[in-house]
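Pilot study result, target chain (375 residues):
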Amino acid sequence: MCWEAGASTLFPKISAGTSRLSSVSLRSSSSRIIEVIPETSPALVSAQWLKERFFDTSGDLISQENNIRVNGAQHHPLILLDANWQLELDFDGYEKHYKGGHIPGAVFFDLDALGSLQSGSQQDYPIPDPSQFERFVSELGVTKDTHVITYDSTNTRSAARVWFLFRLFGHDRVSVLDGGLRRWLEEGHQVCTSDCQGACQPDQSRASGSSVSPTSARPFRAVLRSSMLRNFAEMLEILETEEAQIIDCRPEACLTETDSSVVTDIDSSVMTPATTSTGHPSIGYIPGAINIPFTNFVTSEGTLKSEEELYLVFESSGVDLSVPAVVYCQEGKTSCTVALAAFMCGIRNLPIYMGSWAEWSKLAPSSLIATKKKV
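Predicted structure:
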């Protein structure tokens, strides 16, 4: 065994709720989201759900070579993706997070490798093209039949980005581990570290789901759902026609004139200086946008709020979920958390403005850059 025991201190139990997905419940008491059906996967799964599906009673990884049965129901093989990422220049999630401790069997998912700057693009973190995404996830061991579970250590932000990307490219068997690594540790589960004689390397032979027999696995094929994205021209049209609500999910200080340099869309609410990770100004917003900081959608324990609470977050901020909407953030990642929250409220495909503020601040005329006056 190369695993270390996780933290044993438990936070208060998450309030119970129900999923809007019609599904077969495996358990009913340990978490609000611990359901699964063979062909449609839930948006959220609990740490307990993952433990029961990924590990046997002795703590060893369960083989994911074929579809497996849980409580008599047939289910798809799993792959667990560690998606830790932070808004920092030259941030190395593999070195800083993955090697420092990850859930056994997890494969590191490098978001930066899929979001590199493109020549001529004004986007800091562009959406990859379908062939790039298809090749990238196939090399990790993902097939058409794989149920992808993704997690991070920071309020689901980067895990939600991975969830969104898989759905964007036509793969609906994808779930976010509710509460991520933090919740996993709080429930006393194990982690693997770089001290485990190389076991932390993202070796495809150890990737759960990557060892599916080539004769039985159907290859992953990326098919772009363009309706889940909005570009700069489409945002201009939305402003002109007022055909959709615009949600800005950055901290409020990003919208407000200030003499000091503060904040971008990060997990804490303050960052210096007031620029994106690639150096672009962060202060200002798209005229008419409704501000809902993405942290409003998560609890202090790092889990997504209940569906009832999520709905109230939208409603109390002035967003009508029965009316079309689009969400943006600083660079296109945090907005995926809002898309996940909307999904839990029954809005399956809330589109994101892929260029977000980083692009808008460079392309839009000054008349279309609004700021709030500092009080």
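One observation from the pilot: The longest helix spans residues 157-168. A full batch analysis is planned for the follow-on phase.
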